[in-house]
Design goal:
With about 350 residues, this protein is α+β, with helices and mostly antiparallel strands. The chain folds into 3 domains: about 15-95, 2-Layer Sandwich (Beta-Lactamase); about 100-175, Orthogonal Bundle (Helix Hairpins); about 180-339, Histidine kinase-like ATPase, C-terminal domain (Heat Shock Protein 90, 2-Layer Sandwich). It has helices at about 15-20, 40-50, 100-140, 145-180, 190-205, 225-245, 300-310; strands at about 55-60, 70-80, 85-95, 185-190, 210-215, 220-225, 250-260, 260-270, 315-320, 330-335. The strands form 3 sheets. A 5-stranded mixed beta sheet has the order 5-7-8-10-9, covered by helices on one side. The chain has a 3-stranded antiparallel beta sheet with strand order 1-2-3, sandwiched between helices. A hairpin with a 5-residue loop joins strand 2 (about 70-80) and strand 3 (about 85-95). It is elongated, with a radius of gyration of 29 Å.
């Protein structure tokens, strides 16, 4: 309850808890709108003025608790009149809308990511389609020798392979969302998984002249897993390291058993990860460097698939980075299998 000067005269127990007050009288006597942060203060002052003039006023605004906890409020300021109909004080009812606000914010961000994702899908498919179309048109001319014809055919094959991988990522994402991923679990050595993933990306590593070093445990690193899916996991993480590490950069892969876990680390000295992206880097459609590397940034599905597939194997994955241009390190832990 506020007097006609806007001073807080009464606060119910719910308000004491919601505002995280140490003492019930901590805010009594203070001018109500001065409690609000500067960005919201004018709204609070106007709502009080409207209520003091005899009309109900409503607004939504941000105001942290006394302890600094972020809170978003739905506020209603109502006049309280005496027997003669004169306003004698103002009653303010504030509902904590933080959960609803955060949910709406998450929906807005998801919608923006979806829009970016759809634009990226179009980009990822348009470029190889254009290249394949141009090559096909040239082949129709039948004016090239065997070597040039073979070169154009290989270009078409590469672009079709790229589109196939895009389609597979989309299908895998849909399967994960529906819980339809089925693992073919067998006893396998993670050293073989790493070797197969490296072999798949060897051409890209060489093309960018990366210094790739492997430090693999001399003893078998056995897990119970799906070989194809684990190669996909390692390949996605290693592929990101190749993509985001400048030419001539360094990538290091270490694999070791520690107790009941098999730990794989893939580290690079590339572009790094901004601090504000670390928390969401495994989210679907998340792209760390979409503003600077749009041509090669992919769909933003790779790391979300990594997390899902590692989780299906009973493991975990984490990312670390000291920031932009400071490199990054991805750590995958899987339960060790006993012989």
């Amino acid at each position: 309850m506020l007097d006609l000067q806007g001073r807080l005269g009464q606060l119910n127990p719910g308000g004491i808890v919601a505002l995280e007050l140490d003492q019930p009288g901590q805010l009594l006597g203070k001018v109500w709108w001065e409690i609000w942060p500067e960005d919201s203060r004018a709204l609070a002052q106007q709502a009080f003025a409207t209520a003091a003039a005899g009309k109900v006023s409503k607004f939504n605004a941000f105001c942290p608790t006394v302890q600094g906890t972020p809170r978003w409020w739905d506020v209603v300021a109502s006049p309280v009149c005496d027997a003669d109909g004169q306003v004698r004080e103002v009653m303010v009812v504030s509902r904590d809308m933080t959960e609803l606000y955060m949910a709406r914010q998450a929906l807005r961000e998801a919608n923006l990511r979806k829009d970016d994702f759809l634009a990226t899908v179009a980009h990822e498919l348009r470029n190889p389609l254009s290249a394949a179309h141009n090559a096909a048109e040239l082949l129709k001319l039948k004016a090239f020798d065997h070597a040039r014809t073979a070169e154009l055919a290989q270009l078409v094959q590469r672009q079709l392979g790229h589109m196939s991988r895009v389609a597979e990522d989309l299908l895998d994402t849909a399967r994960v969302g529906r819980g339809e991923i089925r693992l073919n679990l067998v006893m396998l050595d993670m050293r073989t998984v790493v070797a197969d993933a490296v072999e798949q990306l060897q051409a890209a590593v060489q093309a960018r002249r990366h210094r790739l070093t492997l430090d693999l445990d001399p003893a078998a690193c056995m897990v119970k897993g799906d070989h194809t899916r684990l190669v996909q996991v390692v390949g996605n993480v290693l592929g990101n390291a190749v993509r985001y590490t400048p030419e001539g950069g360094a990538i290091a892969i270490t694999l070791a058993r520690a107790g009941d876990s098999i730990t794989l680390r893939i580290a690079d000295n590339g572009m790094g990860i901004p601090a504000d992206r670390l928390a969401t880097i495994f989210d679907m459609y998340s792209q760390v460097h979409q503003s600077t590397l749009r041509k090669s940034d992919g769909l933003g599905l790779g790391l979300s698939l990594v997390r899902a597939l590692v989780s299906l194997h009973g493991g975990s994955v984490a990312a670390a980075s000291d920031g932009v241009q400071s490199g990054s390190c991805f750590t995958i832990r899987l339960p060790a299998a006993h012989h």
